[in-house]
Design goal:
- Two copies of one chain form a homodimer.
- By secondary structure, chain A is an alpha/beta fold.
- In chain A, about 35% of the residues lie in helices and about 20% in strands.
- Chain A is built from 15 helices and 21 strands.
- Chain A has a seven-stranded mixed β-sheet with strand order 13-16-17-11-10-18-19, sandwiched between helices.
- The longest helix of chain A is centred in the N-terminal third of the chain and has 24 residues.
- The relative contact order of chain A is 0.13.
- Chains A and B meet through helix 4, strand 3, strand 4, helix 8 and helix 15 of A and helix 4, strand 3, strand 4, helix 8 and helix 15 of B.
- Strand 19 of chain A pairs parallel with strand 20 of chain B.
């Protein structure tokens, strides 16, 4: 059997740039996982882990020019965006180093023995231990921040778990470069380089999720790919947690009062959010509820103007470009759907931004089987294919749904599956909690999303302690987050020690608290 | 179609006592779930939830005589044990009411906006919201503490989730009685009674896990039943978390020094733990590593003596009795296995306690396919069926494995799957952290179990803030706990609010902190 080559491709031309690697065989995946498993003990020391994460951040920053050039050559995302993404990535590595130092993620709880209770309570000391080897599936659209040196890798290493990354085929050279930097950082911190490995190839990704020594997985990508891996993780003899971020429509609601107040600002802001990164963000607003009537027309007018002025952009690969063009065509062909600015081909290798519109009534009536409970008139009587408007279309396009009243807006929201984000644009009066639909909208979208944004845009997911980047399925396959301070929790499991003598406890749990960790003590 | 009757059966005689209910049809399951879903909003108020949980505890306590009598009649667990179990159950309900009052489970995190950061950080406020309707699958062996009014029900209600319990066929009358008390408590607290429902029947249990409005499930039972439900939960169009406690061997290691020091105490203690509740605890020690030689013989001698003096007991139902007798027979027939005190039939409706022994060498050599990585000589060359000794056998029996040295003990531990608990019996010198195998044993069993016990017994799982009752698969299908303060976490998901005006935030997240909740603020 000959090895399958892995090519780095220039999306601006569609041409192969260089052969970067070969796809990993079963045996190579097995070797990478076993080597990572064997190296896990070296990650037990929190001080070493924190030093490793900081060394990795430093090395990536020192290599910024090289990394950005490599990533731009195979993603066409541009040096500006990629420089920002690298800063986000190294900031994330350092934030997890700080989290390791602080130790709150161990969620230490200590219960003193209490013989006076019925039944008597023994001494219990609980903390969290790393799961073991973690599989990370890199995202197409973030060659750094959600790929080899990205959030899942950083949080898993911070937790003490070795990582085997399945590289994304859109940026294999960047993946190899980043992996080599991470491994150099590991060695610099006194760790075996095997704590981070990269494999290429679709089949290698499947081997990885099925490997007995893999204990958990993180994924950012499509519903189809993510669900296949989720199913494989669940079907294992020993099932493992699969933290997948699969797809999100990221609904936006513009209230009538907000449209009346600042239609132009909203329309222009929407255009900016939809076209950021050529529409290739998982939190791109994909469905926007805009009121019918003159104020709503001003919103769409501003959107039309801004999108019309947007330069065509290059998508991450040619398959995505074809899918985008086909996806737009399929949606635009539906009854009652129009395309005031037609998105689609912007040249041989680029695409143009645009948007589609549909009346809320047509969307609700044309949608079947979305949610029998929504009471939205779907009724199972057979629709006309409008449910595709409720699916994510990757690229610079959004669907504007024009609604007549709050009941229609609520009915459209009732058709939606889970989302990473939901955004409301409210008037100044509505933000003061007075009259208007704001409170009901907040309550409804809270059931639909992992993050609720008011008077902003969902793109730009801050790396912050309170962040939550997840949401009901298919936004995520678990209730954990892939961004922010609590992302480390997905790679840990609790263990309680009952009546274990102090000398035999892990240092984290000893009475004298030699590591100075935060703990909750029940006397 | 005629309704299938649900009978309450006396396990002491095998006779039907009374028809309690009928099995729920698909339509009835659907109605119960929809009614629970419709009632979920009423659980949003934390003060009302806490009052409800306390009212339920009070009503159960007031009805103690009635509840204990009902449970004893169909489980034969005896009034003493059941009185204790009821106290545990009501204590648990009150502990979750306290947790609701305290509010730490909301894990509130607030990040102040910081425009000076690159990129600027918006204001983020995160807490957790209830998932929605929870399905609880009651356990056979705890008609109260892990059934209708048990831990999963209490923690789900505390989280704000309505509950539909699939009753266990071993105690349908107790289930109905407890459900009626819970529903009375709901009404007394001003809640609709539909926040708790009970359904009967195997098919109803499957309908429940597949229902689109069910958002999560808790289960305590067998590997076979639990895995089938886990698979169904994962295969849904929208997969849901399935928190199952499936099976555990609960290994015990007696070190040579501990045996030398207090063999008789250990042997007698082991007998007590193995026979408690007629061996029907999920944390019953099922595999005990005892050193070869005279000190080990003293341990087994004491075990023999104590088990020989144990009265036969009645198992929960006749199918369990048949499985127990068949399971013992299968294990006793293996090469190198002996039965110093033969467990098995203790009369027409009861069983006698006993134990089996096997040399570690024979167990390791006779085991195939347990874990290719254990390096324990399994080697895939075909064993002789000893792997059944590594499976839980429900009832009053344990397997004593005699080991020659620490390497053999470690090899046996290396064969094991995940466990709820692992227990070490150490000498006084070993507990001081000096010489001896203690530290290595602690490290090894930490990888195998959710709770590590030293110089005690795993039976008796304290309801306490730091408790963890879970463990690697098949002990549990998730990394959450079914007992203790953090059990509430399984029914919640985080939501982050970005730049949401104070007046529109949920009260839990408002700047003035009107509910006085604990929060972590990043300035």
């Amino acid at each position: 059997m000959t090895a399958t080559p892995v090519w780095s491709v220039d999306p601006r031309t569609g041409k192969q740039r260089e052969q970067v690697a070969v796809e990993a065989t079963s045996r190579e995946v097995d070797e990478a996982v076993r080597a990572a498993h064997a190296a896990r003990g070296a990650l037990a020391d929190a001080v070493v882990r924190a030093a490793f994460l900081r060394a990795a951040a430093d090395l990536l920053d020192e290599s910024a020019a090289h990394v950005v050039e490599a990533a731009d050559a195979e993603t066409a995302l541009g040096p500006g965006r990629l420089t920002g993404e690298l800063a986000r990535t190294t900031g994330q590595l350092r934030a997890f180093a700080d989290a390791v130092d602080e130790g709150a993620y161990l969620d230490i709880r200590i219960d003193r023995a209490d013989p006076a209770l019925t039944p008597p309570r023994p001494e219990l000391r609980r903390y969290k231990v790393p799961l073991g080897v973690v599989a990370v599936y890199a995202a197409s659209n973030f060659p750094l921040a959600f790929s080899v040196p990205g959030g899942d890798t950083a949080s898993a290493l911070a937790a003490g778990c070795p990582v085997v990354v399945k590289a994304h085929p859109d940026h294999p050279a960047t993946s190899e470069l980043c992996a080599s930097l991470l491994r150099r950082a590991a060695v610099a911190a006194g760790l075996p380089p095997e704590v981070v490995a990269v494999v290429h190839g679709f089949d290698a990704g499947l081997e990885l999720i099925r490997h007995p020594l893999v204990t958990a997985a993180g994924f950012t990508g499509s519903i189809r790919g993510g669900r296949a891996l989720f199913d494989a993780a669940a079907a294992r003899p020993v099932p493992i947690p699969f933290h997948g971020e699969l797809g999100s429509l990221n609904p936006v609601v513009v209230t009538a009062a907000a449209a009346a107040e600042r239609a132009e600002e909203i329309g222009a802001g929407l255009a900016g959010s939809v076209t950021l990164g050529v529409g290739q963000f998982c939190v791109k607003p994909g469905l926007v509820l805009v009121p019918e009537g003159a104020d709503g027309d001003r919103v769409t007018g501003a959107l039309t103007k801004a999108l019309g002025e947007t330069e065509p952009g290059v998508l991450l690969d040619h398959r995505m470009r074809e899918n985008f063009i086909a996806g737009v065509r399929e949606r635009a062909a539906l009854a009652a759907v129009t395309a005031p600015v037609t998105p689609g081909s912007g040249g041989e290798h680029s695409v143009g931004a645009g948007y589609l519109t549909v009346p809320a009534r047509a969307l609700v009536e044309g949608t079947v089987g979305a949610d029998a409970d929504a009471g939205a008139g779907a009724g199972g009587s057979g629709g006309s294919g409008h449910e595709v408007l409720l699916e994510e279309c990757f690229g610079p396009v959004t669907v504007v749904v024009r609604y007549a009243d709050q009941g229609e807006a609520a009915a459209v929201l009732g058709l939606l599956s889970g989302n990473l984000s939901a955004t409301l644009h409210l008037s100044a009066a509505e933000t003061e909690g007075g009259a208007g639909p704001a409170a009901e909208l907040i309550a409804q979208v809270t059931t639909l999303a992992g993050r609720v944004v008011v008077n902003g845009w969902p793109t730009g997911v801050a790396v912050a302690p309170a962040q939550h980047h997840g949401g009901p399925y298919p936004a995520a396959t678990s209730h954990s987050t892939s961004v922010g301070g609590t992302a480390i929790e997905r790679w840990l499991r609790p263990v309680a020690y009952q009546s274990v003598p102090d000398a035999l406890l892990p240092p984290e749990l000893r009475e004298a608290n030699p590591l100075g960790l935060p703990r909750r003590v029940t006397p």
